[in-house]
Amino acid sequence: MTGKKEAILGFSAQPDVQDAMGHWRRWLESERNVSPHTLTAYVGDLATFLEFITGYHARPPSMNDLGSLGPADFRAWLSKLANDGLIAASRARALAAVRNFFRWLDRSGRLHNPAIGGLSTPKVKRPMPRPLTVVDADRLLEESEKEPDEPWIGKRDRALFTLLYGCGLRISEALNLRRKDAPLGETLRVQGKGRKERMVPVLPAVTEAVRAYMDACPYKQGPDAPLFVGVRGGQLAPAIAQRQMRDLRRMIGLPETATPHALRHSFATHLLADGGDLRAIQDLLGHASLSTTQRYTDVESEQLMEIYRAAHPRAKQTPK
């Protein structure tokens, strides 16, 4: 053991590695502006890696030890993750975290180890977005106000779901809005992943739904209070919003893929189907990479093929 600091951080490493990790973490927070969720995941992945190296070499690693690691050491760690049952996506994220740390060590002049750069990232098959149809999205918004016992809660749910579908927000982005941020004008400023801000246009239907909810909400709090609140007036939890959606989809017979995030998928897919520009949709969604947005072109192509197979006379003929 190397002392109290190691016990607090929860991993085995020599003081020079712990010091470097602290500086790396602050760099992620202050300069890279990563989200708290990403920061926690990256720090946890790196701690797990250091624990593995401690066991693999029978001693807590120092900076010199990290600098001398070879490809076989990194591959052994990835194999251990796979044997422990981690899926490819989790292994890819862990590798990204450790690779980020080593690149930062290199750029900051602390050590140079090219071995990790030669590793292949585990292949991750990203699930295809499952949007609602236009008809189902409209039906969900219409019915969302009718289910809850308290009328104001129904208006809250309709406002939230209309905002997700009408502006393409992530559920976390919507629930983090304050009352002063209420989308009552023509645009809405959204803080997305990595604390990056973007502007999205606000449809009149969104403004109308949010205004109706705010008028009906019994909690008239200050401008910095949460926009969407629970039954006791605190910020609405994502789990509650997901439960409301789950109850609603069961009531009106929608598939299990009808989630709050599916409304964001629907926003993008329906814009694309109606001729929306891919790069404009990327900006509206706050995607850092165009390749992430391009998944929606696959959805559109798949839907076109389903229409073709269902409607074209030749497609419906059985081969002899």
Q: What does the model show?
A:
This protein has 320 residues and is mainly alpha-helical. It has 2 domains: 4-118, Tyrosine recombinase, N-terminal domain (DNA polymerase, domain 1, Orthogonal Bundle), CATH 1.10.150.130; 134-310, Intergrase catalytic core (hpI Integrase, Chain A). 58% of the residues lie in helices and 3% in strands. It has helices spanning 4-9, 15-30, 36-57, 63-67, 71-83, 88-107, 134-144, 151-167, 171-175, 204-216, 238-252, 260-273, 278-285, 290-293, 295-311, and strands spanning 187-191, 197-201. Strands 1-2 form a two-stranded antiparallel ribbon. Helix 7 (134-144) crosses helix 11. The longest helix is centred in the N-terminal third of the chain and has 22 residues, at 36-57.
Write the layout of secondary structure elements.
Elements: H1 4-9, H2 15-30, H3 36-57, H4 63-67, H5 71-83, H6 88-107, H7 134-144, H8 151-167, H9 171-175, E1 187-191, E2 197-201, H10 204-216, H11 238-252, H12 260-273, H13 278-285, H14 290-293, H15 295-311
Antiparallel strand pairs: 1-2
Residues in helices, as a percent range: 55-70%
Q: Determine the CATH topology of the largest domain.
A: hpI Integrase, Chain A
Give the low-confidence spans. Answer: 1-10, 314-320
- Helix/strand structural class: mainly alpha
Tell me the number of structural domains. Answer: 2
Strand content: under 5%
Family: Belongs to the 'phage' integrase family. XerC subfamily.
Domain Tyr recombinase: 127-309
Organism: Azospirillum rugosum
Protein name: Tyrosine recombinase XerC
